[in-house]
Every structure is written in C-alpha cells, then in structure tokens.
Fold this protein.
Amino acid sequence: MGQNCRVSFDRKAVLRDSLSVAIPVGTYGAAFGAAAVAAGFSVLQSCVLSLALFSGASQFAVVGVMGAGGSALSAITTAALLGVRNGLYAIRLSSILSLRGYRKYLSAQVTIDESTAVALSQESRGTEAMRYGYFATGIGVFVFWNLFTLIGAVGASAIGNPSAWGLDAAVPAAFLGLLWPRLTVRKTRIAAVLAVMVATALTPFTNPGIPIIATVLIAIVLGWRAR
Amino acid sequence: MSSIWVATIGASVICYLIKIAGYSVPASILNSARFQRINELVPVVLLSALVSVQTLAVERSISVDHRIVGVAVAAIALKMRASFPLMMLAAALSSALVYNLT
C-alpha cells in the first residue's frame, strides 16, 4: 500500500469489473425516472435528483415520501438517513483515494454503494486498481443512471394514469428489491417485520413520512446490544 | 417554490454534504461496534417501512388494493432470484392487470 509502490495492474480486468456493475445498475435509472414521474415529479425534477442526489435508495425515498403526501422535511430526513452509509463509505475510502482540493469535492459525488463495493473488491490488485475501479464504476453508474432516468421519466410522462400501468406497485417493489439482500440474518428479518408493523400501525395517526422515520428507533433498540 | 422542489434540492444538498463529510471524519468512528450495528439496521427498517407504506397507505388511511398483488409477485420473483428489472416488470404487470380488471 502507499504511493511508493507504483505496481501496474490489469486495467482491462478492473474496467470489466466496473462496467459489469455500472451498466446493469445504471439501467435501473429507468425505473427511478418512471417512479418519480408517477409520484408527481416533473421530468426535470427527476433528472435533478439523479444528477444532484445520485444515491438510489435516497432518491426512491424522496419520491416515495412525497408521492404518499409527506412533507418535504420528512422526505429530506428519510433521504439523509439512507444517505448516511455513503458518508461511512467515504471514511473507508479516504485513505485509499487520498484526494486533495477540488478533486475531493468532485469525486465525493460518486461515493455510492457500487463504486465502494468495486473499489474494495480490487484490494488484491493493489491501491491503484482500487482507485481505478472506484472512478470507473462511479462515473459509469453516474452516466448510465442519469441517461436511463431521463428515458424512464420521459416514457412515464407519456403514458398517463400510473396505476393502469402498475407504476404505483413498482415503487414498493423497488424498495423490496433493495431490502431483499439485507435479510440474510435473523436480526435484520426481525427488524424488517417490526418496521412493517410499526409503519403500518402509525399511518392513520401521523402525517405521511413520519411512520417511516419513526422506525429508526427500532434500529437503535435492536442494534444497542450485540445480541 | 413547490414542496417537491424543496425536497429535491434539500435532499440533494444534505446527501452531498454527508458524502463530503465522510472524507474529513477520523476513521476511528468506524470502530464503534454499537454504531456499526445500528447503522446496519437503519436501511433495513427504513426500506421495510417504505415497502409497507407504499403498498398499503393512501395518505393517512390503509387500503388493500392492486398494489399488494404487485408487491407479492415481486417477493416471489426475488425468491426465484429474478433480476431487478425483471422483478419490477413482474410487479408492475400483475398490479396493472388487477387494477384494470377490477
């Protein structure tokens, strides 16, 4: 590790890893664009979310909370809570990327699940490969995600009633797809079931958005102890 | 400015600041096991809550309708290891079918 070892690495192999993640993930942008328009966002607003927010789960959350009639504050809070993990990725990555000046501010935007995962998976190829994998994946996802957001948003605005096309079910399905791989251990399954119960039970009594944020208490209570 | 614009810009700014902040925070914060455990569960509870609210809620009321069919089909698709786009397509098609036939 460190700058002293300028070991060359197999660029093609790292690029292949990066693009095999970036292209399929980027195409999900179409689902986001369609969901955003179905929730009442304009094509421009959908595209601004993909360009400026650029974090899938947080973007779907903003759209989901606003679409359910929640306040802007609820939407922002939910997005921020889901975005905390990007900050944690940045902590992990900062020693690997060792960014200075304006580069830090530019590359922070592509600090997401996929770029971090590919960077960390290149550890055996060395630090230079990790950096290359991070940027190739981050920029790749950014380009395809934004392109497909536009396609999805324009497509959805052309079709009228979202329910008739199943778009209102596609949004919770997207959340389920993001949730699914996390349900591997018993504790996360318990947390998921409790969250469903609490959020549903609170819905008639609070403003939309609050039932979602309230479930963070479940995470705190269950995560407090090791078992 | 409409509330959708407030949410769009507000969430974008905060999420960017979180990303940037990570590059300035000492790495020692990651060593707290409790912090890590809670942080692993936060996306799980938020996503679960979003699934249930998006499936069942209409503003402040609960409605069991075509959406739950789509989500159930999505769960089956995920169980069968379908890809993400295929899963969403199956959910949309089944939900649309129920919506248009009832």
User: Anything to note?
Assistant: The mean pLDDT of chain A is 91.
